Amino acid sequence: MFRKLVATASAFAILAPCAAYAHHSFAAFFKADKIVEVKGKVTSFRFQNPHGTIVVEVPSDDGEVQEWRVETNAPVVLMRRGWSRTSLKAGDVVTIDGWQARDGKRYLRLRQAFDGNGNRIGSAPFDTSG
Questions:
Q1: For residue 66, what are the CA distances in angstroms to 30, 62, 69?
Q2: Per DSSP, what are the bridge partners of residue 74?
Q3: In this predicted model, what pLDDT tens digit does every residue of 24-71 receive, in sequence order?
Q4: pTM score of the predicted model
Q5: Which domains, ranges and CATH numbers included, belong to the chain?
Q6: Any residues with CB less than 8 A from the CB of 115 and at least 6 apart, and which?
Q7: Residues 6+ apart with CB under 8 A from 103
Q8: What is the dihedral of CA 39, 43, 48, 50, to 10 degrees?
Q9: How far is CA 50 from CA 32, 127, 130, in A?
Q10: How far apart are CA 19 and CA 104, in angstroms?
């Protein structure tokens, strides 16, 4: 009995930091005052927990293609805002704006997205609390 308790406590102690890192604070990773807009072609959309991910190929001014990653809210929050697993698919052209990563990488936190015709995907923009 004691061994099971020690094994369980040890496993929890090892895995707890991983779980804490997976669900991070917005302010720790993104700049609330820095909104960036990107337009390009979706290469993937992962509708998964704890956060979804959109990958977009964005042509730069010099003609090179840059890969941007966009972190979304959890699927349950996206669904409340009118998104679904099929809201985006590879090849779709989108315009996305979001808060830029603090480290300056090509990584955003989704604020809002528009399809190739300029129609908003889902409802109102997300805020920094979601």
A1: 20, 11, 10
A2: none
A3: 576 677 888 889 999 999 999 999 999 999 999 999 889 899 999 999
A4: 0.76
A5: 26-115 (2.40.50.140)
A6: 92, 93, 94, 121
A7: none
A8: -50
A9: 20, 17, 12
A10: 24
The amino acid present at 29, given as its one-letter code, is F
Q: Which amino acid is at 22?
A: A
Rounded to whole angstroms, how far apart are CA atoms 74 and 121? 16
Burial-class residue 125 by CB neighbours within 10 Å (0-12, 13-18, 19+): middle
Burial of 99 (0-12, 13-18, 19+ CB in 10 A): buried
Token digits for 92?
Answer: 């779709």
- Token pair 């480290």 is found at 103
| Rounded-to-integer distance, Cα 58 and Cα 114, Å | 15
Backbone phi and psi for residue 117, each to the nearest 5 degrees, phi listed first: -95, 5
Which residues have a Cβ under 8 Å from the Cβ of 40 and sit 6 or more positions away?
56, 57, 58, 59, 65, 68, 93, 94
Q: Which of 88, 19, 80 is nearest to 55 (CA)?
A: 88
